[in-house]
Design a protein that fits this description.
Layout: E1 4-7, E2 14-19, E3 24-25, E4 30-33, E5 39-47, E6 52-59, E7 69-72, E8 75-78, E9 84-88, E10 92-93, E11 101-102, E12 108-115, E13 121-123, E14 127-129, H1 131-135, E15 141-146, E16 153-160, E17 164-171, E18 177-185, E19 188-194, E20 201-209, E21 212-220
Antiparallel strand pairs: 1-4, 2-3, 2-5, 5-6, 7-8, 8-11, 9-10, 9-12, 12-13, 12-14, 15-16, 16-19, 17-18, 17-20, 20-21
Length: about 220
């Protein structure tokens, strides 16, 4: 809800205030207004001598965009690129989880509260996330990333009971995908990756397809 109070200095000689929004009378030197879109208000003041003077004020209404959270396997994504703060209904605020994407590690009901560039706040829908059902799928595929931490050079090893195509994505703490590659896994897969061009910090490595999701945190020193 938005509201503004528009004030004009009072004077005993004034006999009427007439606002473009419809309020008219000596008692309307101040009005409360709740516009739903940007608009211009005009007030016309009449004094006891019959003199008339008008003034105006432009009111800009910044309406926050709706925020929608979606789930793509083990990752939750907010429609807001920035300004996110992730929450879980029982745990409350999730410290330092303010990227566009969030990867839960436990069952819960998750949502994001977004503060936009105008300071307006909007709360997303909730997602009832079941972590246990995702972790069971990983039992036939083992993933190892080492050394961790490292200077940016990581080795990835995958052992799988079946041949499958996976998408590898590296995500920074802002929720941005900084590296992506498609992998074809035939029982065993091994490859080295050079991320030394990335800034030091914590990243999450996502390996996904329609039936598999594995998330590993890696640290570049």
């Amino acid at each position: 809800m938005y509201s503004w109070t528009l004030n004009l200095p009072g004077d005993n000689s004034i006999t009427n205030y007439a606002w473009s929004s419809g309020e008219t009378g000596i008692d309307y030197s101040v009005i409360d207004s709740y516009p739903t879109s940007s608009t211009t208000y005009t007030v016309t003041v009449t004094d006891a001598r019959g003199c008339v003077k008008s003034d105006l004020v432009d009111v800009t209404v910044n309406i926050p965009a709706d925020v929608v959270v979606t789930q793509n396997w083990g990752t939750l994504t907010s429609s807001a690129i920035s300004g996110n703060q992730w929450y879980e209904q029982t745990l409350g605020l999730l410290v330092s989880e303010n990227g566009q994407n969030y990867t839960p590690t436990t069952d819960g009901v998750y949502y994001s509260i977004v503060t936009d560039g105008n300071g307006c706040i909007e709360t997303s829908n909730t997602i009832d996330f079941i972590y246990s059902s995702l972790s069971n799928i990983s039992q036939t595929t083992n993933v190892s990333v080492f050394p961790n931490p490292s200077n940016g050079i990581f080795s990835l090893e995958i052992n799988s009971e079946s041949n499958q195509a996976l998408v590898l994505e590296l995500v920074n703490i802002q929720g941005q995908i900084v590296f992506s590659k498609e992998l074809n896994v035939f029982s065993k897969y091994s490859e080295s990756f050079d991320f030394s061009n990335l800034a030091p910090g914590i990243y999450t490595m996502h390996l996904t397809n329609d039936n598999f999701n594995e998330i590993s945190k890696i640290v570049i020193q």
